[in-house]
């Protein structure tokens, strides 16, 4: 198998610092102290691919879009393109910083993967068209890859290693390791939707996913579904959870209330205007933090802490999609309470977590109780 590997080095950087995305916000994310997320996600996928399919040939682009990481995983890749060129690299030939990458750079890489190949510097021979474009990023990167494939007239498949904040598209594997397993074992493809949203509207609490492309994607169980809006009322659920929270007012218990409409209904029942896609913190009858970043949430925690979250409709992710502020450091200091409407749970086979910490993911796996009504609960498995 011949894989073309490309990484968006800034994907997901805006999540933990409260930006809800990174499109057009890289500099601000860096100013807020954001750390790159994509390289670690890429390394996890590449390490698993090296184990599952060590004979895979890999084409890459020059750094910072993945070459060093591919070599670090033990592959001997062929560099088919330098998307920046000598002018962008300057006289010293140093790679541009991650913040300098753009959608056009991604497009140049994908076009090179589709073409018959260019002789790579330091390598003999040429590469042929790739069998799969394996990319690391979020919905914006997925859109860029799909658009470049279409513009090049290719119906070759693409598969995403999830590293963005939102990840609405159904072209992503559930985790980096799953992406590698799918890449190593798939035998057929199907057409799937590439979705994205307006991040500025998203930051204002308006979520309007738009279809950006339809792409060929490997068929496997370890692919996520597109996010869908769950139907059904959550009023009684919100009332029951809010009553439970009020009963603990005065005890010093800190409640970390995740994003989304279901937990938003609980916030409204408590009597405050929720930040629709942000994380709010409640303690002893009052809001102590609105729309917090990872560090702000950590600073707000006390001795006893509870996270209240709802799985993403259509996907079942409790952590890892839409709530990166709830980092492993935050999750490890809190008890977990999962809430969901019955309709939402009817749409998912299992719950999922993808926290960036495989050990924590393993600790969270297993059967959990999910609150579905004022008093009712349902057992669901975190796979």
- How far apart the termini lie comes to 29 Å
Q: What's the SSE pattern?
A: EHHEHEHHEHEHEHEHEHEEHEEHEHEHEE
The count of domains is 2
Low-confidence stretches: 117-126, 228-232
Major beta sheet summary: 7 strands, mixed
Count of helix runs:
14
Mean pLDDT over all positions: 84
**Gross geometry:** elongated
Structural class: alpha/beta
What is the strand and helix layout of this fold?
Blueprint: E1 2-7, H1 26-31, H2 38-52, E2 57-61, H3 67-72, E3 78-81, H4 85-89, H5 103-114, E4 132-137, H6 139-151, E5 158-162, H7 176-185, E6 189-196, H8 199-203, E7 210-218, H9 235-247, E8 253-257, H10 261-270, E9 280-283, E10 286-289, H11 294-300, E11 304-309, E12 317-319, H12 328-331, E13 335-339, H13 342-346, E14 352-353, H14 358-364, E15 366-371, E16 377-382
Parallel strand pairs: 1-2, 1-4, 2-3, 4-5, 8-11, 11-13, 12-14, 13-15
Antiparallel strand pairs: 6-7, 8-9, 9-10, 15-16
Helix pairs in contact: 2-7, 5-6, 9-10
Pfam family, one: NAD_kinase
Protein name: ATP-NAD kinase family protein
Keywords: Kinase, Transferase
């Amino acid at each position: 198998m011949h894989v073309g590997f490309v990484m968006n080095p800034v994907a997901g950087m805006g999540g933990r610092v409260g930006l809800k995305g990174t499109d057009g916000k890289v500099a601000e994310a860096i100013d807020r102290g954001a750390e790159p997320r994509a390289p670690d996600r890429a390394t996890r996928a590449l390490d698993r691919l090296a184990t599952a399919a060590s004979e895979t040939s890999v084409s890459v682009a020059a750094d910072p879009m993945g070459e060093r990481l591919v070599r670090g995983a033990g592959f001997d890749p062929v560099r088919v393109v330098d998307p920046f060129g000598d002018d962008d690299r300057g006289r010293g030939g140093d790679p541009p910083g991650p913040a300098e990458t753009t959608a056009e750079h991604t497009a140049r890489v994908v076009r090179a993967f589709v073409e018959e190949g260019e002789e790579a510097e330091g390598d003999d021979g040429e590469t042929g068209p790739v069998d799969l474009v394996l990319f690391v990023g979020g919905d914006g990167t997925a859109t860029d890859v799909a658009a470049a494939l279409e513009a090049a007239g290719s119906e070759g498949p693409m598969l995403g290693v999830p590293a963005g904040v939102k990840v609405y598209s159904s072209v992503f594997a559930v985790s980096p390791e799953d992406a590698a397993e799918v890449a190593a074992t798939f035998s057929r493809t199907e057409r799937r939707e590439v979705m994205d949203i307006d991040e500025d509207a998203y930051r204002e609490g308006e979520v309007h996913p738009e279809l950006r492309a339809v792409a060929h994607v490997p068929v496997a169980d370890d692919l996520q579904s597109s996010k869908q809006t769950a139907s059904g009322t959550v009023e009684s659920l919100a009332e029951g959870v809010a009553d439970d929270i009020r009963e603990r007012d005065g005890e010093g218990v800190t409640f970390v209330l995740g994003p989304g409409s279901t937990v938003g209904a609980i916030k409204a029942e408590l009597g405050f205007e929720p930040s629709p896609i942000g994380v709010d913190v409640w303690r002893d009858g009052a809001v102590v933090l609105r729309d917090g970043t990872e560090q702000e949430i950590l600073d707000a925690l006390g001795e006893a802490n509870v996270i209240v979250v709802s799985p993403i409709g259509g996907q079942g992710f409790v952590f890892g999609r839409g709530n990166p502020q709830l980092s492993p450091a935050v999750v490890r200091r809190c008890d977990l309470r999962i809430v969901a409407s019955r309709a939402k749970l009817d749409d998912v086979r299992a719950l999922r977590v993808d926290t960036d910490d495989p050990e924590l993911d393993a600790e969270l796996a297993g059967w959990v109780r999910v609150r579905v009504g004022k008093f009712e609960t349902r057992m669901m498995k975190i796979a």
